[in-house]
């Protein structure tokens, strides 16, 4: 008998799923090239690529395109986000042949002994210190020698403002969709508005708890698990297993 799906209880991103891809273009205009750079040289023969917190599949698709031939394990706890991810796969049959989706967290996934790479975008700020330590250990054990784990944090050089800040806007048919961010001590709130002219016809506020942890702290944590950090931006870094000469021989 199949196990019941308990992930909906923790579905932080479900209310945002409807709007996510419509308004993600400005963020991914920056994230896409960074991710492609981080995955340069990855060898798919080393194993599948793990996408932790795959969301609607923007990172899954970008990672798969950056590493042609790699099988991808996409892990996502939000049912709403997985609907969008499944739709993305349905629209790209070649991609669907390469991507396996797991409902839940990385600890629910059946992982192989080796991974050619891992991606965790929009993830670590949701984790406590013990959860991050477990993630670093998993990556250190599973990543092939020299393989990258790609991680981002909140950019502390441009954090969410206390006053509402419009992040993106897009016209769809007769309506205009907007995303707004407002910072708080323990994260921020994303607010999505749908306007008909000057009239707001729909509004959804999505509180997102997120720690203010920076790359420097992650580098120290990951280093204790045998991972070396290489920052590519103030909020974006690559972590690779530290291997010795004996391990290569």
From TrEMBL:
Question: What are the top taxonomic ranks of the organism?
Answer: Bacteria, Bacillati, Actinomycetota, Actinomycetes, Kitasatosporales
Q: Which InterPro entries match?
A: Methyltransf_12, SAM-dependent_MTases_sf
Q: Which ranges carry the Methyltransferase type domain?
A: 50-147
Q: Which domain of life is it from?
A: Bacteria
Q: Which organism is it from?
A: Streptomyces regalis
Q: Which SUPFAM superfamilies match?
A: S-adenosyl-L-methionine-dependent methyltransferases
In Swiss-Prot or TrEMBL terms, this protein is called Methyltransferase type 12 domain-containing protein
């Amino acid at each position: 008998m199949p196990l019941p799906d308990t992930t909906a209880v923790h579905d932080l991103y479900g209310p945002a799923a409807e709007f996510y891809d419509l308004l993600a273009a400005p963020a991914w205009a920056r994230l896409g090239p960074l991710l492609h750079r981080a995955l340069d040289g990855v060898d798919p023969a080393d194993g599948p690529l793990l996408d932790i917190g795959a969301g609607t599949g923007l990172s899954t698709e970008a990672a798969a395109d950056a590493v042609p031939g790699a099988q991808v394990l996409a892990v996502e706890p939000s049912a709403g986000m997985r609907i969008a991810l499944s739709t993305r796969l349905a629209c790209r049959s070649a991609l669907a042949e390469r991507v396996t989706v797991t409902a839940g967290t990385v600890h629910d996934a059946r992982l192989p002994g080796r991974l050619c790479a891992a991606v965790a975008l929009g993830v670590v700020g949701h984790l406590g210190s013990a959860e991050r330590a477990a993630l670093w250990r998993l990556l250190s054990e599973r990543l092939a020698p020299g393989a990258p784990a790609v991680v981002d944090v909140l950019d502390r050089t441009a954090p969410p403002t206390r006053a509402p800040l419009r992040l993106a806007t897009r016209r769809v048919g007769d309506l205009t969709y907007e995303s707004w961010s407002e910072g708080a001590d323990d994260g921020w709130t994303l607010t999505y508005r749908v306007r008909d002219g000057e009239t707001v016809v729909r509004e959804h506020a999505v509180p997102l708890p997120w720690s203010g942890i920076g790359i420097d702290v992650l580098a120290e944590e990951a280093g204790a698990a045998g991972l070396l950090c290489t920052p590519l931006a103030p909020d974006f870094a690559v972590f690779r297993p530290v291997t010795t000469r004996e391990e290569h021989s």
